[in-house]
Amino acid sequence: MIGITLLALAAMAKDGASADTAIGRWRTETRNGIVEIQRCGASICGRLISSDKLRTDPALKDANNSDAKLRDRPLKGLMILNGFTQSGGAWSGGKIYNADDGRTYGAKITPLGRDSLSVRGCVFVPLCKTQTWTRVN
Fold first, then answer.
1. Contact call for residues 83 and 97 (beta carbons, < 8 A)
2. Spatial CB neighbours of 80, under 8 Å, sequence gap ≥ 6
3. DSSP E strand stretches across the chain
4. Average pLDDT value for residue range 83-89
5. Mind spelling out the 3-state secondary structure of 12-25?
6. 50 contacts 58 by C-beta, under 8 angstroms
7. Which candidate, 26, 25, 47, 132, places its Cα nearest to that of 97?
8. Of residues 13 and 104, more confidently modeled
9. What whole-number distance in Å separates Cα of residue 122 and Cα of residue 103?
10. 33 closest CA partner among 99, 115, 94
11. Is the model more confident about 30 or about 28?
């Protein structure tokens, strides 16, 4: 097990990937979204900057939120990633908010190199969905 972990870390180092590689702007697989990930203390967090729907209507609200009190907050700039702990070259134990269904899921972010991230959201393991996000320059 330790050998596999060391091989994975060596492969990430070879590609120039580290946990800090997650910092930046990323295009999501769905809805052509742009999420800006930054350091938040010892963790990382991410805000929704843009999407197909936001480009059409920048005043969109969080209308699908499961908490009715939050449905009037703007989607633009909404914190959708938070609570991560660095674990090797990845960020785990965090949460990702999906504005399409108004729900929050457990999440893990793993750099796949300098210009792509694996972003996995789970209702609970093994009920997960993984997307590959690409860096926006």
1. no
2. 35, 46, 47, 48, 96, 97, 98, 99
3. 24-27, 34-40, 43-50, 79-82, 85-87, 90-98, 103-113, 116-124, 127-136
4. 92
5. HHHCCCCHHHHCEE
6. no
7. 47
8. 104
9. 11
10. 99
11. 28
Q: Which two tokens stand for residue 119?
A: 């972003």
pLDDT tens digits along 46-71: 999 999 999 999 999 999 999 999 99
Place of tokens 């785990």: 92
Provide the percentage of residues in the chain whose pLDDT is more than 90: 78
First-to-last C-alpha distance (Å) of the chain: 36
Whether 66 and 73 have beta carbons less than 8 Å apart is answered as no
Among 126, 97, 93, 127, smallest CA distance to 110 is for: 93
The alpha-carbon radius of gyration of the chain (Å, integer) is 15
Q: Count other Cβ atoms within 10 Å, centred on residue 33.
A: 21
